[in-house]
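Example 3.2
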Amino acid sequence: MKRIALLLCALFLAGCGSTSTTTAPTTTSQAVNTSVVYSTTAIGDIKSPVDLVERVLSDSWFYVVSQEGTIQQWSRDGRTKRTVLDVSSFTTFGGERGLLGLAFRNVDNEWQAILNRTNRDGHTEITITTVNDDGSFASPTSPGKVVLVIEQPYQNHNGGAVLVGPDNMVYIGMGDGGSADDPDRIAQDMSSLLGKILRINPSVAGGYSVPNGNPFISSPHPEIWSLGVRNPWRMTFDPHGTLWVADVGQNEWEEVTALPSDKNYPGGRGANLGWSAFEGSHAFNSDVTITNPVVPLFEYDHSKDRCSISGAAVGNNTTTPGRAGWFFFGDYCAGTVSAILTDGSTTIGEEEVASNLGNVVAVRATHKAMYILSADGKVREVVVTRS
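Structure, written as tokens:
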């Protein structure tokens, strides 16, 4: 792959779509011409940051994940930090490998941390461990119990996203396994977990069950929730249950797909995002046939030094005043962060948030603020004011 030499470049998702009609994502009445001013403030540094998440809204801290294999607990101003987990000895670090994602969930008043990392053999390993009331990890030098192991045929396109949905189930973004052009046509292959978004219910004792409502219950892998993704590095749910996927493209197109919830389940159930028949909305592998793929809500080409999308955050009136409902994402090569607004079916607003940020790895939000993570170690807070 052309971008393999760029650290993490293909990690930052993009997927695909087609020319068919998709179900409309969450609508918003937000006015596009609301005048805002963006700025960024550096609040701290950590080696190779890749993710930033909070555990509970009342916490006075959040957690920053290093690709090298550590997790730090930060005060919200970044002034106080402590390492709560170090699994570097259990992790293959380099390129698109390492500790890639973290999610928290509460089950029966017990906090769990779910990790997405590549193990010492270079394969994806999802693990689970418990978290103490003060936010420390019960086993600070262990990844915990193994939930799921997925073999990786190549070193890139490992995905990395892990998040807890509004149904308290765990969603995992799996890349297509790597190389380039989906050589094994694996993203549409239901006998593989690669190139898919998974939905599982992990056990704190290890292993998992398949939740009710998964759409492919009779397939070889009933864990599959959605298919046809290339490298979903970062995903997020908005307050309405829409699943936003920023999927890294191959050669020309980066894409954002919004998968709306229905009355029973969060977004994405049974969706086919089109890779590798399509890169974005553009035909790609002619030998791959797809029925009813989802059209991207937004896509952009590789002009202006752009190469690889890095999401994913949805603004609210606390994190980004005047920009509630806007979706924020970065580009790894261009060093920019942008935001888009949808009217429910198309993009009706687009604006640049920040530039000259180096290699943007992720854009993440807590309920109080929005942050930009860069490969140089900088963690910056996005500051929005109404003019």
